[in-house]
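Pasting as-is:
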Amino acid sequence: MDVFVSELILQTSGNRALAEDPLNRVRIFCHTDLTVGVATPSVRVGDISFNERAILAMMSEAVNAGVDILLFSERALTGATCGDLYRHDLLVDELHLSIERVAQATEDTQLTLFLPVPLLMNDKIIKAILWIHLGMVGGLMVSPFELQRVEKDDESIYLFPNRFFDESEVEDLSYIAETETYESPYWDYARHLALYFGNNDDDEDCESFGAYFDLIPDARHEWTGDYRRLRNVLIDHSKSHHSVVLYAGAGEGESVNEGVFAGRRLIVCDGNVLAESRPFTTGLTTAVIRAEDLEAIERKGGSAVDADDACDACARAQEKNQNQEVYERFPFVMKEELDASTFFHETLTIQGQGLRSRLAATGTRPILGLSGGLDSALALLVCLEAAKIGGFSPDEIIAVSMPGPGTSVKSQSLARQLGEATYVDFREIDITKAVALHLDAIGHDGMTHDVTYENAQARERTQILMDLANMEGGLVVGTGDLSESALGWCTYNGDHMSMYSVNASVAKTAVRYLIETAATLFEEGESPVELPDGDKSAISAALREILCRPVSPELLPPHEDGSLRQITEDVVGPYEVIDFFLWHMVFHCKKPSVVYDAAVKVFSDTYDDSSIERWLKGFIRRFFRSQFKRSASPEGVAAFPWRLSPQRAWTMPSDMAPALWLEELEAHLERL
């Protein structure tokens, strides 16, 4: 079959959602039906030999299936999550040798291969796509953006002006052809430079023609509800630009330090979806594009919508939306986008996939503290979901209730009820004596209910879980949520610490929403997680009772009637208000004055202005004061893009002062 790649282009899309993403655009001519494919192999991060074998196997499968054009997922040869190891000489050298072997594998085939790779250029790591055909690297599309910034923003925001490369930097690549590593018949750098810059004006044989193909290898995390938006954007882009979109997302085997990769694969022609994979799968997805369709989109030329006009229109629409902004009471639960059941299942699947992957990588079983509260109940459901995905039984999960001086009888009972009804390996370990011995050893009287008295209990529980993990070959699952992280409402090196956190991106209002949905599903006879005929009514009853109880760390002894002495929301404010502050001030960078006015408007039916003022000031102080805790956060799965983990999501100095933000709010209040 005659398939001719006439031009490689790096351009910016006119679609606002893609306007900041460099699209790798190719013009391909074919006078017959064309079979295209997108492939996501299962990888081992940094294991180039393993990944090469997986890629070669998929290439063989593609050839046998008659595929003409094949795009692989982002950085499939190395894995998309190698971080600074992309700079390491050993990985770089092995990558070059592997590329040559992959290129050689196409020598006796008609397969045209597009292989995304990391490229070390002038001490900067950038995204690139190799065009491989007939045993040679025939071209190279280079993104003008540094990979480190792209990775930090999870492949979603590439535009960062001071990271741009100018043409002189790219031209410096000519030195590569002179090195011994690249003295190979499988590299053709003269053509690569001409194709990258589109400098074909002087070459009559390089006239561009054919249909436009947008190649989008991606390494974005899977987030609840995100793929729906992305899918619509890709379809709209294909339709408005009269192009073929080939999308290949990273998948199984990538690091789950911060999130999971679903291996999404999508083929769209002129706005029509031709093929699509299921999430959390690897493999080859193919489609046949008819010759008349290729001819039609070639005639339209990929320019039905002017990019600048489209961007201007999007900017005007965005400005209009900002002027008419409607503030939601519960912004973290996505009620406008997803129904409760879909929100629950997508979130739990992402959390479960992350935990399952980490357990498989470490060869461990999950261990968690079960307190009888909201967060640990959700973490238990995540562990059960991981068991379902990973194919191990619930009794491999160790759930430990650790009642102490501050634990209420009701919480202890609820923890036991959940543990027994879910068939996990449930254990009770009373920490009262251990805490008393510790307090006595450090000279504390054990009667003064101060921060030392409280934190000793939290740290004793963490010590038990860590030691159990060592003894049982386990992994301590963190239960703390996003709202607690923002407030610093946790004990440093106590419940603050774990080996893998599953709720770190889930705000408290979302935790409550998820538990409400789980209880409803159990009541309706649907088990939201895999259980061997568990007592669904007992689980739903326990969840409903947990929902009705106030949130409390239970580190102070209850009153004589058993009621809680310590209620979190009496101290920090209602979590629905706290999450509102978090959403707007932290994640959307709005001034405290704007957040205050919005909160007064939204919560005027429930709370008075002075209370909202007090809670907002408290939130600001706590958020700044607790950064040192977030800076030492454990790794964990993100089900949402809203995270405060220091690795890639949120960075700020631990000793930064909140004065500017408090003063701005005070000045605003004085003007009212």
